[in-house]
């Protein structure tokens, strides 16, 4: 069994953040571990408070895991402050890194700033150059690049421009685009387009977290880049289609639909 690590924030309602990551790792039959960077008081309607973890404890969590356990892939999600970002980067650079997926989480679907505005440059400078793949959504790509992204052609340009900031590969996610759910992958040479029908469903809490963790799990299992993204896209689409109706707001996806379906057969 391969071992995946998430470095991210806790989502108390279990649909996004660390909880989504561990569910996706487990559903995809890898062993999940977590380094918690922040605790959020969150439900399906919004994020109500956050508390960041002391950067020293963030570093210590990373270092004790690397000292003891082989890590086959890492995913980074919510990292709110410059101090936490620098601590993560410093700790990771002490070890020989497996494939690293960086999801540059900035604002929750409910509109809460999960990355402090002043931390954006540190995220780009410290984490993009060590990333095997970054997975910004449209709003994050726009924010980093400073221009509007409205079409698939714009997404291609954005992927190429983001690639110049240091990651080996870029996946610009189109969940916020009008029409079908189209994601654009750029590997430094070629584009690969992943297209799925948009599912008319409100249960999209944590879709980005789930997709990036699924990519990490597939990379850990040895799939090449394009297959890892393809199978992860299949996974998130089906998880959205089987979304779980809890709470009064935007519900979570169903990470374990496969398991439940198997049971019903
Ligand atoms: N309604 C939907 N139907 C199908 N796929 C979707 C839908 N919403 C998002 N996706 C897909 O989910 C993944 C996460 O994308 P997105 O929602 O843009 O990320 P984030 O959670 O970071 O905002 C992408 O592959 C995107 O295309
Ligand atoms: C701890 C944490 N990390 C990430 C997200 C982003 O997920 P979404 O964009 O679906 O709100 C979140 N809401 N909470």
From TrEMBL:
A biological process term (GO) from this entry: thiamine biosynthetic process
Domain of life per record: Bacteria
GO MF terms held by the record: ATP binding; hydroxymethylpyrimidine kinase activity; phosphomethylpyrimidine kinase activity
EC identifiers of the protein: 2.7.1.49, 2.7.4.7
Catalytic activity: 4-amino-2-methyl-5-(phosphooxymethyl)pyrimidine + ATP = 4-amino-2-methyl-5-(diphosphooxymethyl)pyrimidine + ADP; 4-amino-5-hydroxymethyl-2-methylpyrimidine + ATP = 4-amino-2-methyl-5-(phosphooxymethyl)pyrimidine + ADP + H(+)
Pathway: Cofactor biosynthesis; thiamine diphosphate biosynthesis; 4-amino-2-methyl-5-diphosphomethylpyrimidine from 5-amino-1-(5-phospho-D-ribosyl)imidazole: step 3/3; Cofactor biosynthesis; thiamine diphosphate biosynthesis; 4-amino-2-methyl-5-diphosphomethylpyrimidine from 5-amino-1-(5-phospho-D-ribosyl)imidazole: step 2/3
Key words, A-Z: ATP-binding, Kinase, Nucleotide-binding, Thiamine biosynthesis, Transferase
Pyridoxamine kinase/Phosphomethylpyrimidine kinase domain ranges (all copies): 11-254
Family annotation (InterPro entries): HMP/HMP-P_kinase_dom, PM/HMP-P_kinase-1, Ribokinase-like
Keyword Lipoprotein annotated: no
Pfam families assigned to the protein according to its UniProt record, in alphabetical order: Phos_pyr_kin
Family to which the UniProt record says this protein belongs: Belongs to the ThiD family.
Protein name: Hydroxymethylpyrimidine/phosphomethylpyrimidine kinase
Lineage of origin: Bacteria, Bacillati, Bacillota, Clostridia, Peptostreptococcales
């Amino acid at each position: 069994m391969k071992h995946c690590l998430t470095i991210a924030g806790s989502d108390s309602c279990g649909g996004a953040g660390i909880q989504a990551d561990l569910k996706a790792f487990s559903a995809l039959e890898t062993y999940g571990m977590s380094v918690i960077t922040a605790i959020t008081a969150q439900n399906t309607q919004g994020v109500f408070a956050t508390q960041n973890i002391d950067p020293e404890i963030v570093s210590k969590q990373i270092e004790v895991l690397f000292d003891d356990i082989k890590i086959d892939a890492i995913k980074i999600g919510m990292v709110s402050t410059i101090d936490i970002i620098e601590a993560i980067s410093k700790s990771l650079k002490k070890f020989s890194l497996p494939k690293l997926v960086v999801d540059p989480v900035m604002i929750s679907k409910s509109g809460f700033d999960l990355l402090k505005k002043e931390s954006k440059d540190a995220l780009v400078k410290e984490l993009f150059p060590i990333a095997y793949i970054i997975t910004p959504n449209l709003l994050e790509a726009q924010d980093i690049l400073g221009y509007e992204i409205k079409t698939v052609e714009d997404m291609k340009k954005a992927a190429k421009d983001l690639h110049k900031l240091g990651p080996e590969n870029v996946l610009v996610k189109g969940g916020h685009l009008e029409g079908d759910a189209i994601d654009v992958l750029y590997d430094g040479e070629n584009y690969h387009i992943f297209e799925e029908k948009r599912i008319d469903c409100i249960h999209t809490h944590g879709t980005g977290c789930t997709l990036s963790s699924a990519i990490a799990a597939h990379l850990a299992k040895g799939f090449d880049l394009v297959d890892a993204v393809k199978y992860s896209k299949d996974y998130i689409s089906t998880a959205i289609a089987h979304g779980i109706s809890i709470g009064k707001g935007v519900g979570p996806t169903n990470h374990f639909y496969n398991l439940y379906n198997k049971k019903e057969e």
